[in-house]
Structures are given as C-alpha cells and as structure tokens.
Write a structure and sequence with these properties.
By secondary structure, the protein is mainly alpha-helical. It has eight helices and two strands, in the order αββααααααα.
C-alpha cells in the first residue's frame, strides 16, 4: 500500500480539514469578510493546534491498523475455509501435510504444524501432549490476530477526552475574549474561542468513531476464528486417534501371518 492510498483512506476521518464552508461575519473594524473552516484551524491557538495534531496522528494510526486488520483477517478467513475443505477431503495424515503449505495465512496451519511437530518427537502416541501443543499454538495464533487491537481501543477511549480538552480551552479563550472586548458581549468577541471548541469536539469524535467500529468489528471476527481453531483442534485430535487405530490394526494384521508361521515352524 503506497502513501497516496493511505492518505486517501484517512480523508474521511478528517474531512473537516479539507471541506470549506463559507460564512459571512461582520467585525467592528473591517465590515464583511468571508472565512473558511481551514482558516479557523490555521488561526487557532497553539494548544488547539496541538490537540488537533494529536488527534490527526491518532486517526492515522487507527486507520492504518483498520486497513491492516481488514487484509489480515480476510486472508485468514479465506484460507481457513480452504484449509478446512482440504482437511475434510484428506483421509491420511501425509495427504493433509502435503497441502498445508498452501494455507500459510490460516491460523489452523500453525495448529496443524504444532501437532505434527509434537508427533515427530514422540516414540509412543500421547494424545494429551498433542492436545497441549495444539492449545499452545492456538493461543499464539490468537495473540497474533489480536496484535495492535489494543491501540485501537486506546484511540477510541482517549480521543473524545483529548477533544474535550480542546473544547475546554476554546471555551476559556471565548470567555477571555469576552472580558477583553470593549464593545461588550458581541459575537465577534466569542466566535474564535467557540469555533476552536467545536472543531476540537468534532476532531475527537472523528478520531474515536472509526476506532470503536474497527475494534468491535475485528474483535468479533477474531473471536470467530478462535472458535474455529478450538473446533479444528478437537477434529484434528480425532483424526490423529483414528489414524493411529488404523495403523495399529494394519500392524496386527501383518503380525498374524508371522506368528502363525512361527507356530508351524516350532
């Protein structure tokens, strides 16, 4: 993803920086003049500009995480579905192992590889050890999927309060302008501070809403993937046990002719 695509993705969160709204304001010194929202931001106090910059950076970070999570979860869901179809069609462990490399983005692949690694270490089949290995792998895969979601939650919870701080600063500026106005309580005296307050409020909401929606959406999708991992672990355990029983039966059938031959020779 290049810089221009990222920039275009962040525009919806900060439309108020680019959208121009003309308004006629009358001042005691200059008569009628037009002002845009961007001009109000540029004429804002240093504290208000700092608040808007922090919220802008928060929004960039949250949108970047949302886009990355959208791509990662989409690939994981698609390849997990394909992996499950391959698993249902496989009748032997070797056949399933041959297809696993095609589903690297699926969290089920990590569980399968953990089970296979544990089986390779065993001289005798121990299903409890295999199950523990798969549970550990499932935890690791869930942790990978949940990576960076904490930042989304932080942006969602902190942005409204940062915007509220800018709102309070704007109200203070408005009252300060009111006290210093020689013409008394006029709209020209309080307008700059009120404008800063409203812009800071809008910026906090604009940064928080996408983060909240993204966090809830991808947390729910990750929960679904985690449930699929638990289900797959149980099904894979049954697959291993079933193949072990079949292998034991084949060995027994091969040993019977040898025993009968040994009895006749004896």
């Amino acid at each position: 993803m290049n810089v221009s695509e990222l920039f275009c993705s962040f525009l919806p969160a900060f439309w108020f920086f680019m959208q121009e709204q003309t308004a006629q304001t009358q001042t005691a010194q200059t008569g009628n003049s037009s002002s845009t929202l961007l001009d109000l931001v540029l004429r804002a106090s240093p504290i208000a500009k700092a608040v808007l910059l922090i919220l802008f950076l928060f929004s960039i970070a949250s949108w970047a995480i949302i886009l990355m999570k959208a791509r990662a979860t989409r690939r994981a869901e698609r390849q997990s579905g394909e992996f499950m179809r391959a698993f249902e069609k496989s009748s032997r462990w070797a056949e399933l192992y041959a297809n696993v490399a095609s589903f690297a983005a699926s969290p089920l692949t990590g569980i399968f590889q953990a089970a296979n690694s544990e089986l390779q270490k065993q001289s005798r089949l121990n299903l409890d050890a295999v199950q523990r290995a798969m549970q550990s792998a499932a935890i690791d895969e869930a942790t990978k999927l949940e990576k960076s979601l904490g930042l989304l939650a932080s942006v969602a919870s902190a942005s409204p309060f940062i915007g509220l701080f800018g709102t309070v600063v704007g109200i203070i500026i408005a009252f300060n302008g009111l006290t210093q106005s020689s013409a008394g309580a006029t709209i020209q005296a309080v307008a700059p501070g009120i404008a800063e307050a409203l812009i800071a409020t809008a910026a906090g909401i604009a940064a928080a809403v996408p983060a909240v929606l993204g966090y809830n959406r991808y947390l729910n999708r990750i929960k679904v993937l985690a449930a699929e991992m638990d289900s797959f672990s149980l099904r894979l355990l049954n697959f291993i046990e079933r193949e072990a029983i079949e292998s034991y039966g084949v060995q027994q059938q091969q040993q019977r002719p040898q025993r009968a031959h040994a009895d006749r020779v004896g």
